[in-house]
Write a structure and sequence with these properties.
The chain is an alpha/beta fold. Helix content is about 50%, strand content about 15%. The protein has helices at about 10-15, 20-30, 40-65, 120-130, 135-145, 150-160, 160-170, 225-235, 255-260, 270-275, 285-295, 300-315, 325-330, 330-335, 340-350, 350-365, 375-385, 390, 400-410, 410-415, and strands spanning about 75-80, 80-85, 90-95, 95-100, 175-190, 195-205, 210-220, 240-245, 265-270.
């Protein structure tokens, strides 16, 4: 049996051949000097490496010119100086010049003010996690020794605007098993006032069981008419068929969905309905009322659910007469999930999945008072979505069993969209 060859660990002499520089670095390490940021050990080393590389580049250019057939006598012509941003901190760079002005540095171009070491990615990452522009400036200065203006940071975040537009107008799949519709509200400054804006969320599950956000939509307030325009947009972007729409109790919601997607099944959120039902129930009665409501939506079928509702009315109509009429008025939408098997029921009886997605956004935005503009809000939400994909872009629970149940229930309408 061959013995595994041991690889030798590089020694300090191999990493830093210059003995003076090596002694300086070791001394600073033993003194616990900072590694990054202004005056940091690695910042100084990177600065020296870049300057040395620039020296090597101009030496190569001058040597090439002297060996060429043109017989050029190009020579050095002193240095310029500039500060360059990097993730290790601000670097003081001295690019050498040549007399003929033909030398083009490669590692750091003439007008380049930032080294490609991830500063833009750091800014976007901090912004995506709810940091304000001033917070981002502070973090860059403290951690990396990089000083940027608020305008420079905004310019970096503005670079994603074309990406947002492209993502917003991308072509969608022709079929989705479920689309959850809900809205979340934010404060935005507009015309010297702070007003409330509704962010409309279209959170979908495709035929394979993968979750997806279909678009970003902002409106002045949540309304059925605006939802109708959003559904029309989904149509234009390629959505042809949806099995289920899961919604809350917004007035007119059902009508606009049926107008755009007439073959889709509409399920009203049971959890929303329970919240509305116990809104004015005495604290001492809430548990009992909720338990009796639970017997309705946990029934085996619609007939048993109707019996449970009748029993609920006998018990509570005298004291809370406003509850049962709410259930009766939207009975078909509330009980739609009763027609399906257990895995499908679990997926559609509530809009909790989209509310879970909203919690991810709220976790990032909860410290914000108001956004300076709609675009600032859109950038924040888009970056939050992008940097938190692992939290919301998941497969549904019991995916294979659910797919079998959907095939049994919908046949070719569903199965033809499976890969």
């Amino acid at each position: 049996m061959l013995k595994k060859r041991r690889t030798s660990t590089p020694r300090m002499e191999d990493l830093i051949p210059d003995p003076v520089r090596r002694t300086e670095v070791l001394s600073r390490l033993y003194n616990n000097d900072s590694l990054l940021g202004e005056g940091g050990i690695f910042t100084d080393m990177l600065q020296s490496m870049i300057n040395a590389a620039l020296e090597g580049e101009i030496d190569y250019t001058l040597a090439s010119d002297s060996e060429s057939d043109t017989g050029s006598r190009n020579k050095r012509n002193g240095y310029t100086s500039k500060q360059v941003r990097s993730s290790a901190g601000t670097l003081d760079i001295r690019p050498p010049r040549d007399r003929d002005g033909v030398h083009e540095p490669v590692i750091l171009k003439k007008w380049q003010r930032s080294l490609g070491t991830g500063i833009d990615e750091i800014i976007l990452s901090l912004y995506a996690r709810g940091q304000s522009v001033e917070d981002v400036r502070f973090q860059l200065r403290q951690l990396y020794g990089v000083e940027l203006s608020a305008g420079a940071i905004s310019a970096v975040t503005d670079r994603i605007i074309p990406e947002i537009n492209q993502w917003q107008n991308r072509q969608l799949l022709p079929f989705y098993a479920i689309i959850y519709l809900d809205a979340i509200h934010f404060k935005v400054r507009q015309d010297g006032r702070v007003i409330s804006k509704a962010f409309y969320t279209t959170y979908a599950v495709d035929a394979s069981g993968q979750r997806e956000i279909l678009g970003l939509y902002l409106g002045d307030s949540e309304g059925a008419r605006q939802w109708g325009l959003i559904l029309e947009d989904l149509r234009k972007r390629g959505v042809e068929d949806v099995l289920f729409f899961c919604i809350d109790g917004l007035a007119g919601f059902k009508d606009v969905i049926e107008e755009v997607f007439p073959e889709s099944q509409i399920q009203r959120c049971i959890v929303h309905m329970i919240r509305n039902s116990v809104k004015y129930v005495s604290y001492k009665d809430i548990r009992a009322v909720c338990n009796d409501l639970k017997t309705i939506y946990t029934s085996a079928n619609r007939e048993q659910a109707a019996v449970a509702l009748a029993s609920f009315r006998l018990t509570w109509d005298k004291k809370y007469k406003e509850i049962s009429p709410k259930w009766i008025a939207c009975w078909d939408e509330l009980m739609a999930f009763m027609d399906y098997s257990s895995n499908i029921r679990r997926l559609i009886y509530t809009t909790n999945p989209v509310e879970g997605f909203h919690r991810i956004i709220r976790k990032v935005t909860k410290t914000k008072g108001a956004w300076s503009s709609e675009m600032a809000l859109l950038k924040q939400i888009y970056l939050t979505i992008t940097y938190n994909e692992k939290s919301w872009k998941k497969n549904i629970f019991n995916r294979l069993d659910t797919k079998r149940e959907l095939i049994d229930q919908f046949g070719e309408r569903y199965s033809k969209h499976l890969g």
